[in-house]
Design goal:
With 172 residues, the chain is of the alpha/beta class. It is built from six helices and seven strands; from the N terminus they run βαβββαβαβααβα. The protein has one domain: 3-Layer(aba) Sandwich (Rossmann fold), CATH 3.40.50.300. The strands form two sheets. It has a five-stranded parallel sheet, sandwiched between helices. The protein has a two-stranded antiparallel sheet with strand order 3-4. The longest helix is centred in the last third of the chain and has 15 residues. It is globular and about 50 Å long.
C-alpha cells in the first residue's frame, strides 16, 4: 500500500501547483495526482447559491468516488497525492491520508488572487466572499488535529526540501 499525501487550503493558495511539483520530485514515479475538482457532481446535481452553482459546498463533490479512486491507486503506486479545498472535510478520507499538508493564505491574499482568477470568468464580489466563508466552514484543517506540514501560501515553497522530507518520512 502506497503513501497518501493530502494538500488542503483555500482556493488559490497553491494546492494544485504544489501537488504537481511534488509529483515530479517524488521517486519512484510517476506519482498520480487526484484533484477534488475532478470529482464534482454534474452541474444539475449541485445546489445553487443565488444564481451560481455552489461549487464550495461538500454536496458538490462525489466523495465516495473520489476516495475509492484514490484508494485503488494506492494499491498500485508508492505515492499518491490528492488536493482540494474540502479535502479534510470528509472524515473517512482524512483517516487514509498519511502525510497531511495544509497551505494557509491570509484573507487579503486570497481576495487579491481570487479577483485575478478568471478561469471561469469574473466572479461577483458576493461570490468571492462566499468562497472565503465556505473555506471557513468546510476547508479548514479539522479541530484537534495538526497538519504534518503547514505552509504559508503567500511565500515560495521550498519544493526540493519538501520532497526530500516526504520521502524520508515515508520510509520511517
Amino acid at each position: 500500500m502506497g503513501i497518501l499525501i493530502g494538500i488542503g487550503g483555500v482556493s488559490n493558495a497553491g494546492k494544485t501547483f504544489l501537488a504537481r511539483e511534488l509529483a515530479q520530485r517524488l521517486t519512484p514515479g510517476p506519482v498520480p495526482v487526484f484533484s477534488q475538482d475532478d470529482f464534482v457532481w454534474p452541474e444539475s446535481q449541485i445546489p445553487l447559491i443565488r444564481d451560481h452553482i455552489d461549487w464550495e459546498c461538500p454536496e458538490s463533490i462525489d466523495f465516495h468516488r473520489f476516495k475509492n479512486e484514490i484508494l485503488a491507486s494506492l494499491k498500485q503506486n508508492p505515492y499518491v497525492i490528492t488536493e482540494g479545498l474540502m479535502l479534510y472535510h470528509d472524515r473517512d478520507l482524512f483517516r487514509h491520508i498519511d502525510i497531511r499538508i495544509f497551505i494557509e493564505l491570509s484573507e487579503k491574499d486570497f481576495y487579491a488572487r481570487k479577483s485575478l482568477d478568471l478561469r471561469w470568468g469574473a466572479e461577483p464580489d458576493w461570490y468571492i466572499n462566499y468562497i472565503w466563508e465556505a473555506y471557513q466552514r468546510y476547508g479548514k484543517f479539522p479541530a484537534g488535529h495538526h497538519p504534518d506540514i503547514l505552509l504559508d501560501g503567500s511565500r515560495d515553497f521550498n519544493l526540493d526540501d519538501l520532497g526530500e522530507w516526504i520521502m524520508v518520512k515515508a520510509k520511517s
